[in-house]
Amino acid sequence: MLGSGCKDYLDTKPYSFNTVENLYKTPQDAEIGLTGCYSILNATNVQGTGFGESFTVKMPIMLNAGTDELVTQDGFTDPNYAPFGTAEVSSQNETIRNNWFFLFAGINRCNYLLENIEKANVPQPRRQEIIGEAHFLRGLLYFYLATFYGGVPVYETSQQDPKAQRDKLESVYQLILADFNNAYQNLPNRAGIDGRANKWSAAGYLAKVYTYLGSCNENAVGKSLNYPLNSFDWVNKTEMYANAKSITNKIIAESGFGLTKNYSYLFRETTKSQLAEESLFSIQSKTNSANGNYNLWLFWQIPIGSSVAGGGYGWFRPTGELFFKYDNADERRKNNLTLYVAPQGDKENIEGTNYFIPLPCTDPLNGNYCVGKFRYRDPISKSISNGTAWSDGNVSLLRYADILLLNAEAKFYTGDETGARERLKEVRVRANPATINALTTAYFKANFIDELLDERSRELCFEGWRRVDLIRFGKFESSIAALTDYLGSWNRIVPLLKSNMKPYKIWYPIPKTEIELSPIDQNPKY
Amino acid sequence: MYKIYAALKCRRNFSIPSKFVLTMKLTFVLLTAVFLQVGANTRAQNISINKQSTSLKEVFQLIEKQTSFTVVYDSKIIKATKPFSLTVKDVSIETLLDRCLRDLDLDYIISMNTIVVRKKPNAPDPVIVTRVTGKVVDSKGTPIPGVSIRIKGSNKGTSTDMDGKYTIDVPEPTSILVFTSIGYNVKELLVSNEKVIDVILMEEVKSLDDLVVIGYGTVNKKDLTGSVSSIKADEISKSKVTSFQEAIQGKMAGVQISSSSGEPGAAMNISIRGANTIYGSTSPLFVIDGVPYDANANEVGTASIGNKTSANPLANLNPNDIESVDVLKDASSTAIYGSRGANGVVIITTKTGKLGTPKIDYDGYMSFSNATKKLGVLSPDEYLDYRRIVSPNTILFYKDTNKDGLYNELDEPVDLSKLEKHDWQDETLQTGISQNHNVSFSVKKDNTSYAGGVGYLDQGAIVRNNDFKRYSARLRVDQDFNSKLKIGLNISLSQTGQDGASQSGGGDGLFNGIVQNLVISKPVEFYDPLWDRAGAYISPLTMIDDAYKSAATVQNNISGYLNYKFIPGLTLNISGGGILTNSKTKEFYGKKTSWGVGDNGLGIIQDQKAASVFSTSQLTYEKWFNKDHYLNAMIATEINQYTYEYFSVQKSNFADESTGIDDIAKGTIAKGSASYKDVNRRLSYFGRVNYTLLTKHLFTGTFRADGSDKFGKGKRFGYFPSFAYGWLISEEPFLKNSKQISNLKLRLSYGETGNERIESYRYLARLENAFYNGELGQAPASSANPNLKWETTIQYNAGIDLGLFNNRIELTLDVYSKQTKNMLLPVYVPGRTGYNQQWQNIGRVDNKGIEFQINTKNIKSRDFNWETSFNISSNRNEVKDIGNIGYIPVTMGGGWITNVGRVTVGQPIGTAYGYVSDGVYQISDFTWDNNSDPTIPHDKRFYVPKPGVVQVTGVNIRPGSSKFKDLNGDGIVDLDNDRTTISRSTPKFFGGLNNTIRYKNFDLNIFLEGAYGNQIFNESKYRLEGGVSSTWMNINKDFFYNRWTTENPSNTYGDFGDLNKTATLTSSYFVEDASYLRLKNVSIGYRFSDDLTKKIGVGSARIYISGSNLHTWTKYTGYDPEIQSENALLAGFDRISYPRARVYTIGLNVGF
C-alpha cells in the first residue's frame, strides 16, 4: 500500500530559515553572527517580540524621561511609554519586560559568538577583532542592564541557566570592565567596517563605568534602600576617578576624536561625517537598510508637526526648567528646544539636503514647546521606506564632548578644579564662540558639581545620560522635587511625577513575568 | 390475471448488506424501488455472464446479483422458455435483455431500478380505455387526500379526494401509475388488467434513513454512533448567502459560526464545541469531496497594511454546488482523522448526478444591501460646539494672523459658515447591488453519471469601491466500468476577486481604516498642519478613491478515486487529489491617503501559493455473519503534503500614480521584499471497525497513527483511538410496537484526537535574520525542543436521539466533555535566557457542553406544511493549566487601550482583564484651592481627593474621572491588586430557530439566530468620548449631551476622555453585552403550477424574495454584535468593525 515504503517521507528540512548549529562554519558566518550581535542595538523586534525596546525607541525613553529634562506629555497615556515620564513604571510594564529580554538576547548572541568563533576559522587579526567587538557589545549591554536593574545574572556562556539568580553589582562590573578592557586591548583605532566598535569606543565606555562607579560610591547611591545586591560599597572611588582621569586623558590625547564644528550637525539625519568626527560609538542606520533596523526619532526627539515637514509626535516634552538652564544667547538652546515644523514653513539647506526649520521657542509656556534637538529632513528627498516615520540617521551613544565632561569630573575629584572648569568652557565654546565669556559668567556656580551637572544637561540633554547622571550624583529625587508645575507648558504633569517619585525608583523593577517564570529577587519596594 | 412472484431485495450501498429477503405474492406488480434505494451511490450496472446452459430465471437472478436492478415477472410466462447458452461480457442491461428476449414473446420495461418482464403487447390495438378506481391510504389505513396520480410517460393525471379515492382512465394494461404525495414515498404500479387498485403509501422516513457522511465512508443515520450534524442541499439553498459558512450558521447545535466583520469575503470563524487550544488554530478540518483541507487564511491575500481583515479561504466554494455539509463533533467521529480532528471535522460533499431524467437547473438572484445601522456621531454644527469647548484656541477657529504660533483673540477668526460640512456615513455608505447566477446539471444514465455547473457572483458592498466576485465551475463524473471497477473524477475551479481598500485600521496600527474613518472623520473640512500628517486635508472619500486593493484567488479542487470490488464485501478504494490555491494581492495607496502619504505613494504585490495534496488507499470489508452479526472493517494509509509559498514586493515614492500598482517600476524606493516557503508532510495509518449486534447494538472502534514532520525524530507519530457504542432502544421488544416512540437511540463515545497545527520545525533551534546597518546578520531565535510532540484532546460524548409519533418530532441531545492536554504552546521562558518563547507541550484546556436540537413537523397535509427546527448549545471553556506562568497577556496593538486581556487559569479563553467600573468621581469627593473656594472656575481648580476617597495609582484623578472598585479595600486602585476578569468573548448559549411553512404553492421560511451572554470590549468608545481630541475625531452624540459636567454630575458618563485620565485604563466601562437575536432570514417563494410550467416549457419554476439580517435585537452600541477581532485570545474586542448589511433578494429557480 502507498506510504508504507516512505521511511524518509517525514525527514524534511526547513526551506526559509537556517538552524543554529549550522552557523559558524566559515569566516563569512562569523561576520554574519557578529552583525547579528550588533543588530540588537536598534532591533525593532527580537524573536517576533516587542517594539524597539532597544536604542530604537524605548531605551532613549528609559534613559531620558521622568527627569528634570523630560516629562510625559499631559494627556498621553500609552502604558508602554507614558509611565516613564511620570515615574510610575510597574513590574508589569511591557516595555520593561521586553527591554530586559532584548538586552539578554543580545548578551546571548555575543556569548554564542564567543563560544563558536573558533569553528569559523577566521584568519588573524580579524578573529581577534571580532572577539573584541563581541566583548565590547556584551560589556555595553551589561552596563545598561546594570544601570537599569542593578545586579543581574552574569552569563559567560550561551547556555544561559533559566534559574540563575542575580549576581551582585560587583560581579557584574567585573565582567563589564573585563569586556571593555578586552575590547580596548584588541580593537584598532578605527574599525574596518563602518560604525563598528573601535579601541576608543571601549575606552569611552571604560571612562563611563569608572565615573559611574566612582560617583555612585561617592554619593552613597541606593544606600538607604539597604539592598546589598545593588550596593556600591565595594567600589574604590579613588581608584575609579584615577582610572577615569587617565583613560579620558588618553582619549583626548590619542584617539583623534574631537568636537565637530557645528553642534547641530550632530543631530541631523544626513550629517553623518560630522557625527563621526565626534562620536566614539554610534547606532547605525542606513538608507534602504534591509528589512528594518532603522533608527526612530519620531515619537519625541524631533519637533512636533506634520510628517510632510519632518515633524513628530511630542509624546514626551521638555520641562520649563530646562529652557531656563540656558542663557538666551546659548545657541544650543535654539537647536534643542523649539516649537513645531509646518509644511509651509521655512527650510534650511544643510550640505545639499533640505530641513524644515521649526518655529523658535521664546516662551516654554507655548503649548507647542517641544524637543527639537534631532531633525528629520524634508521627507520628499528621503529615500527610505516610510521616510516620514523612520530615520537613516546615526545616533551617537557616546561623544567626545561627553569625554571632556567626564574628564572634567575626574579632574575635579582628583583635585584639579581649575582644569575641570576649563573643560566645561571647552565644551561650551564650540556652539558659542562669540559669547563664551558671557556664558561662562552666567553659568558659573560655586559648587562645581552643580555647574557640571547643568552643563551636562545643556550639552547632552535627551542623549540618554540625564537619568544616569542624576542617579549617580544622588540628585534623582531632589531634582524632581525642585521642579515647578508652572514654568513650562508641560510642567502641569509635574505634580504627578513628584507624587510618584520615590528613592527606590533609581532602579527599574525586575519584570514580574520574569519572576513568575523562574523566581528571582525583585528590587526593593516593587 | 397476472400472478407474479417477485423477489425484492433491499439494497443499500455501504454499511449493511441485504438483511432480509422478501418473497411476496402479489396480485399485481409492485414496483417499490424508490424507497429502498437510498443515496446516490450506485453499483456497477454492466453485466457479464458466461453459461453453457442457463434459463431466463437464472439470468434474472444474475442480473439481480450483479446490479442494483430487481427483476419482476410472472413465473408462468417464462416457464415455457428453453434453456440456452449465453456469453456476454460487460454489457448493459438493455443489451442483455434484448438478446435474451428477442426470440421470445416477451419484452421489458425499466422503471426506476426495477425491470418488469412481460408478455409482448399485441400489435397496437385500438385504444381501449380502462377506468381504474381505488383508494390511497397510509400505513395505518388512513385515507390520504390530494395524492397526485399520473400515468407514467403521459401528462394525464388526477388526484385523490378527501376520502383518498380516485378515478383515472388508463389507455392500456401496461400503463404505470405514479402516486406521489409530499411526505410519502413515491409509488409506481403497473395497471395490468386491474380495475380497482388500492394503494398503501409508506410514510417517508427520509431523515432517519438519510446517509450521513462520516470520515472515509458513509453510514445510515440510524446506525450512527457518533455525534454528527448534517445539512442538506435544500436547506443550504434556502438562505441566499455567498459562503457556505453563512448557510449553516445557527442551524447546527454545537457549531458556532461568526463572521469577523460584515465585509464581503471576510473570514468566517467556525468553532465546534469551543476552543480547544490557546495558540493553534481552532478551526475545524474541512474535507471537501474527500480532500482534507486545513483552511489557512494565509492562502488568500489581504491588505498588508493595517489591521488585516482576514479573508475566507473557503469563499471559493459556491454554496449552490453543495449537496451536504456534515459536521463531526465527537471524538468517535473525528478520531478517524486523528491528528487533525481535534477541532471537529466539516465534511462538504458536492452534488453528484441523480437518477431520473437529466436535469438542468438555473438559480439566479439579485440583491440589494444597505447598512443595518448608523452610529450616532455629532453633526457638523454640534461638532463645532464640541470643539469650542475643548479647543477654542486652535486653527479651527483662528487664523494665526500675527504669526506668534498661537491661535487666539489676537488673530482673525475663521469664518465657520464657509467650511464644507459632511455626514460621512450618509455620503459613503451606499446600497450594494449583487447578482448571482448558477446553472447546474445532473445526469445519470446507464453506467455513467455526471453533474456540474457554473456560477457567477458579483457581490456589491455597502462601502464604495468594495466588492467581491466569484466565478466557479465544476464537473463530477462517476463511471462504472464493470461490476467490480468504478472510477470517478471531480474537478472544481473557481476564481474570486475581492476589491476594496483596507477596511479596518491603517498603517502603523493607526485607527484609520475606511470604516473607522466614516465614523470618526471630522465632519467639517479644515486642515491642521499639526495633525493632518499628509500635509493636506484627507477625507474618507479620498481614502477610498485613492487606495486600491484587489485580491484575486484561483482555487482548483481536483480529486479522483478508483473503487475495486475484489469479492462481495471486500472493496479497495484509492483516492487522491488536492486543493491548489493561488492568490495574488495588489495594493496601491496614493499620497492622498494616510496609508500612502508617508511613503509618497506605496505599491505592494503579494503572491501566495498553496497546495494541499493527499492520497489514500483504503480497504473495506463488510459481512453479515448471520442475521445477528454485522461487521464492517476498514484499514487505510494516507499521505498528505502541504506546500505554502509566499512572495511580496513593496515599492514606494511614486512620482506618477496614474498607473498605480500595474507599473510598480515607477516606485523609486524598494521598500521591502519577502519570500517564504514551507512544506509539511503527514503519513498516516488508520482503521475502523463497525460491529452491529442484533441490529440494535452498534459498536464502533477506530484507531489512527499519524506521523508529522513538524516534530523531531522519535516524536513524530501520535496514536489516536476511539470507541463508541450505540443502543437502538426502539428496536427492543418493549418499544418496538410503541405508537409514540418511533426511534430511541443512546450513543456513548470516547476518543482521542490530536493537533499539530503550528508552524513547521518549531522543535529546531532556529536562526533569525538580524540586520544591522544594511548588512545581513543572524542570531539564535529559539532554543531547540526535541521533545515537542502532539497535542491531544480527549473527548467523552453521550447523546440521545428520540423520534416521536412516527418521527414527526425528532430530538437530539448531546452532552460532552473535552480535555486538551499537552497543548502546543509557545511558552514564555525567562527573558534572561536570551529567548522569549519556546514551543512546549504544556497546559490544559477543558470544554464541557450540552447541545439540543429538535425538529418537528407541526402540520402535515396536502396543502399546508409547517416544519420547525430549533437548536441551542452551551459550551463552557476553562483554561486549567498554562504551565509555570500565571497568565498570558493579550495586547491589542495600535490602540490607546492596549493591555486588554489575559488568558488566566480558571477562566475561559477570551477574557478582558482590568478594573471594575464604579461610576464617576464627583466634586464632592474633592477639596481644592483656598479651602474649596467655589468662585474658582472648575478648570482652574487644583483638586485634592478627600481622605477616604479611593485613588488610582499613578493617575491624577479629578471630578469627572472614571472611578474603579477598590477590590482589595486598601484605599488605592492599583494594577497588582484591583484588576480582575471583566468580560467573556464566548456566549453562554447560542442557537437558531427555523420555521418552514408551505401552503399550496407558496413557501415561507423564517430563520432566527442568536447568542446570549457574550461580551465585547468596545475600545472605540474611548475615542468616541473625546479620548484623543488632538486628532480632531468626531465623537458620540449621546455622550456629548449626557457627559459629566459640573452642571450635569452624571455617574454614567465621565468628562471628555482627555480630561478623564482614568478613562484610558482597561476597565469594565468598555465592556458591553453583545447578546443578540437576529432575524437572519425571511423568504417567501412561489412555485408555479405544473400546468403553467408545462406551457412555458420548463419542468419547474419558483420565484422568491428574501430578506437577510432584517432585524437584530441587541444592546450593543457598535455597528454589530457579531464581530471577531484578529486575536483569537480576545475575540470580543471591537474597534469599529465593518457594518453588517441588510440584504433584500429577489430570485428565480427554473428546472428544465
Report on the structure:
The complex is a heterodimer of chains A (526) and B (1152). Chain A has 526 residues and is mainly alpha-helical. Helix content of chain A is 41%, strand content 5%. In chain A, the strands form 4 sheets. In chain A, strands 1-3 form a two-stranded antiparallel sheet. In chain A, strand 5 and strand 6 form a beta hairpin. In chain A, helix 7 packs across helix 11 and helix 11 runs antiparallel to helix 14. The relative contact order of chain A is 0.13. The model of chain A has no long low-confidence stretch (mean pLDDT 93). By secondary structure, chain B is mainly β. Helices cover 9% and strands 46% of the residues of chain B. Chain B contains 17 helices and 65 strands. In chain B, a hairpin with a 2-residue loop joins strand 58 and strand 59. The radius of gyration of chain B is 35 Å and the shape is elongated. The chains are: A mainly alpha (526), B mainly beta (1152). Chains A and B meet through helix 1, helix 3, helix 17 and helix 18 of A and strand 35, strand 36, strand 40 and strand 41 of B.
Q: Return residue spans of chain A where pLDDT drops below 50 for at least 5 consecutive residues.
A: none
Distance between the termini of chain A: 65 Å
Largest sheet of chain A: 2 strands, antiparallel
What shape does the CA trace of chain A take? globular
Question: What does the average pLDDT of chain B come to?
Answer: 84
Q: Name the assembly state.
A: heterodimer
Measured by DSSP, the beta-strand proportion of chain A falls in 5-15%
Number of helices of chain B: 17
Largest interchain contact? A-B, 111 and 96 residues
- Measured as a percent range, the helix fraction of chain A is 40-55%
Shape category of chain B: elongated
Report the average pLDDT across residues of chain A: 93
Radius of gyration of chain A: 23 Å
Helix content of chain B: under 10%
> In total, how many beta strands of chain A?
8
Structural class of chain A: mainly alpha
